Amino acid sequence: MLSKKTKYGLKALTFIAKSEGEAPVQISEISKSENIPQKFLESIMLTLRKSGFLGSKKGKHGGYYLIKEPSQIKMADVMRVLEGPIAMVPCVSLNFYEKCDDCPDEHECSVHKLMIQVRDNTLKVLRNNTLEDLSGI
Amino acid sequence: MLSKKTKYGLKALTFIAKSEGEAPVQISEISKSENIPQKFLESIMLTLRKSGFLGSKKGKHGGYYLIKEPSQIKMADVMRVLEGPIAMVPCVSLNFYEKCDDCPDEHECSVHKLMIQVRDNTLKVLRNNTLEDLSGI
DNA sequence: GTAATTCCTATTAAATCGATAGGATTAATG
DNA sequence: CATTAATCCTATCGATTTAATAGGAATTAC
Q: Are residues A105 and A123 both part of a single domain?
């Protein structure tokens, strides 16, 4: 299941993309418009800024803005930052690989093979979709 | 992330599929061979039996056996029983649909559209793969 | 200098997950 | 019939994760 964090983050990015060209977008505005708890959203925006998707301006009339073009922001990258690994098991993760405790040899593991297929198909979608697609520009 | 429950369940089914034709397969045997905590596996096997994938025989020389041909057991169905919804958000789930709290209209939701694509591609894989594929028969 | 905003760290409450406990029931075997 | 070996069943526990909140520090516009 997608965490609320990720869902809220994607909605917030979409909201900002749609408001682009104007002044920075404020958390309070996104929070109200998208029904996201404000304090929770605050921490998510922080994460998105620290990972290079958003810039911010502090103080009055401050807020957040996109650093890259929406068409350059791949969903796969956003998901990795907010949700973590895209793969369903660590042993098939490209960016968060980990060996499984229970598998002496992962190439013998039936689950491994299946999850590689799932990963590849999920990745295809998430690499193919950018923020531009989500915001319907 | 795939839960251990699901992973163990899939491995156990694969193990039984490979041992097919002989006597019922015992939990203790699967547990040792696949490095799965026995008591935990016990509860998983119970779930798989109650949901119609496995039959069981009690008492001495008892154990579990497949009820259907491996080629007739779709991964999508096993996953739904062990893991729950395949979709990443309830609002795009075919079998576990639920409305999202934060979305007044889900057809307007950017995340919704993306997650339908992810779901469809995941389903394609999970419907296409059967226990026969996993057990490499 | 005041108001409005982001920034930062810590904390909490609830849910979920992985695993274990302890026995009840059933069946094979001698 | 007694023993052994297996599944069946319910409950519980501890650790982790998740969603959210708290409380103030720092910064900026005006």
A: yes
